[in-house]
Amino acid sequence: MTVRIIHVGLGGWGGSWARVALPAVSEVEVVGIADPSAPTLEAVRKDLGLPETAAFPSLTAALTGVEADAVVITAPAVTHVPLALEALDAGKHVLVEKPFANSAVEAAEAVHRAEERGLVLQVSQNYRFYPAPRVTKDLLAAGTLGELSAINIDFRQWDNDAAFEDNPHYRFPHAMINDMAIHHLDLLRMVTGKDAVRVFAKATWPSFSKYQDEAVASMLIEMEDGLVVSYRGSWLSRAEHTPWAGEWSIQGEDGEIRFTSRGAEPGDISSDRVTVRKTGGGTAGGGTTGSAAGAPTVESVELPTAEHHDRQGGLQAFARAVEGGPAPETSGRDNLRSLALMEAATRSAASGMPEDVVVPD
To answer: Average model confidence (pLDDT) for the chain?
Structure first.
């Protein structure tokens, strides 16, 4: 079975979805596209070789104009939940870009609607579909480090050169926390298998920043088992840039795991690396670099390959869930916990106080 898709939201990142991600996954077929911008709609239609009858100015028109099984939403974040509710009410499964919504309460409405109708609702947390974090998750689950003592996450990029009016990213609500850190916060939940309960965030606004909201943020995140995670993120860093999934140091009783992930372009796994530093000469399997007996060893872990990474990996998981396969790990229900952590961080950055992570029922 091929899952028939209506794709709504074709500008910017949505255009990349249309031209790169969706065509790469054989389990789906785009039967309709929708965007309120006529030039954007026509450009994507021509690039995909779709007939004029497959292009619509709105999701409402597309739902009545073509037969489809699911809707992929890559429109602006403020429209995610309204569009998801419309699609779910029409009996369609939904894959929605991150952030799911700007509030967990709003997102919960879509989660409830999907569950009431027995439909798949998945959030595109695409960084989960890279080899390094998945291997790290398995290593931690196997107890490679013993009891954890600390996790440090660093993200450093520079995106401040364009004129304000030329770069919509500068106007993204809370571009550091809601647009970028949401990836890392979701990965934190994935690799540890734990949820966060409290966060203290501080944001700064250097005078040279062109962002309307914070472009630099630091957080202390308390996990449910008491572990404290340190996070530092910046869109204004002149230091050596990290891969997009950041630089991670996970420390425990028996050693340390370091990993990086997601290279310069979507699907680029060249930056995916995992190393394990073990005390007393222990190894996690693979090649160990030199040390004396009983001294710490540093091992590079061999990473598996997969048919798809990034958005394509999530899209394949979505298609298989629609076809009756396993529920997606980034379901709307699961993503409420990542979204609630993101929301608590933005509240803390505004209040200057630690904020509890409140997950709606």
So the answer is: 95
CA distance 229 to 25: 36
- For residue 347, what are its two tokens? 């509240």
Whole-angstrom distance, CA of residue 345 vs CA of residue 202: 9
In the predicted model, is pLDDT for residue 287 greater than 50? no
136 vs 276: CA distance, rounded Å? 10
Structure token digits, residue 124:
């595109």
CA distance 213 to 143: 40
DSSP 20: I
DSSP characters over 60-84 = HHHHHHS--SEEEE-S-GGGHHHHH
Q: pLDDT value at position 284?
A: 55
Q: Are 172 and 179 in contact (CB under 8 A)?
A: yes
H helix runs in the chain, sequence order: 13-16, 22-24, 38-48, 59-65, 80-89, 104-117, 131-141, 182-192, 310-322, 332-351
DSSP states along 165-229: GG-GGGGSTTIIIIIIIHHHHHHHHHHH---EEEEEEEEE--TT---SS-SEEEEEEEETTS-EE
**Rounded to an integer, what distance in angstroms lies between the CA atom of residue 80 and that of residue 73?**
7
- Asked if residues 334 and 315 have their Cβ atoms less than 8 Å apart, the reply is no
99 preceded by a cis bond (ω within 30 of 0): yes
pTM: 0.93
